[in-house]
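Subject: design request, 525 residues
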């Protein structure tokens, strides 16, 4: 069905319905792997691992075994949401003095310890049902051979120089001078063997075994800090989600080092408005949303750091005084706060018929991460070190064994104490912006699920200007300019994300929707 916002915008897919299980992820092979796992009696976590591992084989430009993840899990039996922070830390030797010339975007010195694989195992220990080794069959098959996606090949066009400069990446993604094309069969035998090792030896095969040895020795040989010993003993952290109330719904996100708190700050600012103020006039709505972002990022972004190292005033930031200040920003305006937006991320939302639910965001950060692939394992490594600053006065200052700030933002929205919406999107720092827009579309504008995620969005460009998707008329951009916002039109999921959303209806029916901005896919039964 067509969206009902503006003529000429993309067609929205019809939602997918189910009663026993629903998986929405960034690739059809991954979503169907998760659904098959549910079909053969797997738990929600079993299905998530199968989905996540398959994404790591088919979308290495966005997520890989060399990346991190945040997991939000609603345990229906306990009636509680818990979080698992599976993000890694900086290696020993990662000091401001070492990075005195700046932290590179690419290469071995952009890489932090990956956390996702051990996060899978800790979740499986607590909530798994099927044997661990049975969860990787689809991922291994995909690594052995799968058709390259158009999103991957588009990324190769955008970041050809970076990928070409890395020998293992060049060998995988290029045929001579020409990049692979969408639909070409991509074969990753080294990655398939790595997945077999994980299936057999669990996360110890990664962090204390041959995988860490291969990655670490290769990184050291190329001038990096991340030796094999840096992986050993890594542990993810169980955390309590942060939350705020918005229109009678409890919005839950991960605490810092996630950007999730910035979404809550935006919603706290917008709560000063009546729903119709975010529904009746497109220009006014965008003006309010931009102001909410400006205030939230100005107040909160400097504190997105590792709470084990930095004292982060979460209670104050989410408290009444800061909320009043944010509401003043929304109503009266504030100075712009700009940030970069160039993420490589993939997402999963998943629910079962028993009331359990998960929201997962996993990533290598920038598209193709560090563009540093270990040929021995076939793993593309993250570039999460770029989440640090080199400034002793900044809470995000780089330090050994410290976790960098993360733009990843899984969202769970409860109504009456039970999950109502599961929400994720890629898009770097724009993730919180996109999620606020989808949620206000649902709750303030009363949109149907697919319409809410397909409606035109706004974001922030690399130069700090505000960007409107092409579905917005030019007159809106001009009016926002008259109100003091530098606005231009743009397109592309790199800025505007690709939402994956599940709505759980009052009768328990699961409704899934996948954004058409990328090759996302919803599968239900």
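Subject: RE: design request

Done. Sequence follows.
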């Amino acid at each position: 069905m067509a969206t009902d916002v503006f003529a000429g915008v993309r067609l929205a897919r019809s939602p997918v319905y189910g009663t026993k299980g629903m998986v929405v992820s960034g690739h059809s092979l991954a979503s169907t792997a998760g659904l098959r796992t549910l079909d053969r009696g797997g738990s929600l976590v079993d299905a998530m691992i199968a989905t996540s591992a398959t994404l790591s084989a088919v979308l290495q430009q966005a997520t890989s075994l060399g990346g991190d993840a945040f997991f939000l899990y609603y345990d229906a039996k306990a009636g509680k949401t818990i979080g698992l922070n599976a993000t890694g830390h900086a290696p020993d030797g990662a000091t401001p003095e070492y990075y005195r010339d700046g932290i590179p975007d690419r290469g071995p010195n952009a890489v932090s310890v990956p956390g996702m694989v051990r996060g899978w195992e800790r979740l499986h220990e607590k909530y798994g049902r099927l044997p661990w080794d049975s969860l990787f069959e689809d991922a291994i098959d995909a690594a052995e051979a799968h058709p390259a996606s158009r999103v991957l090949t588009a990324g190769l066009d955008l970041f050809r120089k970076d990928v070409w400069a890395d020998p293992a990446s060049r060998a995988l993604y290029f045929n001579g001078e020409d990049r692979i094309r969408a639909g070409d069969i991509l074969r990753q035998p080294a990655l398939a063997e790595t997945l077999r090792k994980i299936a057999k030896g669990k996360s110890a095969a990664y962090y204390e075994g041959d995988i860490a040895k291969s990655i670490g020795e290769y990184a050291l040989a190329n001038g990096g800090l991340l030796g094999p010993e840096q992986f050993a003993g890594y542990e993810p952290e169980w955390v309590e989600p942060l939350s705020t109330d918005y229109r009678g719904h409890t919005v839950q996100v991960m605490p810092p080092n996630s950007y999730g708190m910035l979404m809550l700050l935006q919603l706290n600012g917008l709560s000063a408005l009546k729903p119709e103020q975010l529904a009746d006039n497109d220009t006014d709505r965008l003006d309010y949303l931009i102001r909410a972002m400006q205030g939230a990022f100005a107040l909160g972004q400097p504190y997105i750091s590792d709470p084990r190292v930095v004292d982060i005033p979460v209670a104050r930031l989410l408290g009444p005084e800061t909320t009043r200040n944010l509401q003043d920003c929304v109503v009266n305006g504030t100075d712009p706060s700009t940030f970069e937006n160039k993420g490589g991320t993939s997402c999963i939302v998943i629910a079962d018929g028993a009331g359990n639910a998960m929201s997962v965001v996993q990533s290598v950060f920038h598209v193709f991460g560090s563009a540093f692939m270990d040929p021995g394992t076939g793993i593309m490594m993250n570039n999460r070190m770029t989440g640090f600053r080199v400034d002793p006065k900044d809470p995000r200052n780089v330090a050994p064994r410290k976790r960098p700030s993360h733009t990843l933002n899984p969202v769970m929205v409860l109504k009456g104490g039970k999950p109502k919406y599961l929400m994720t999107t890629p898009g770097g720092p724009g993730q919180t912006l996109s999620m606020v827009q989808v949620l206000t579309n649902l709750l303030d504008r009363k949109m149907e699920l697919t319409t809410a995620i397909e409606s035109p969005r706004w974001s922030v460009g690399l130069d700090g200007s505000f960007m409107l998707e092409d579905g917005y008329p030019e007159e809106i951009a001009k009016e926002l300019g008259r109100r003091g916002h530098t606005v231009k039109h743009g397109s592309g999921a790199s800025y505007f994300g690709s939402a994956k959303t599940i709505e759980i209806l009052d009768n328990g029916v699961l409704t899934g929707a996948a954004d058409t901005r990328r090759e996302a896919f919803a599968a239900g039964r």
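Residues 1-10, 336-342 have pLDDT under 50 and may be disordered.
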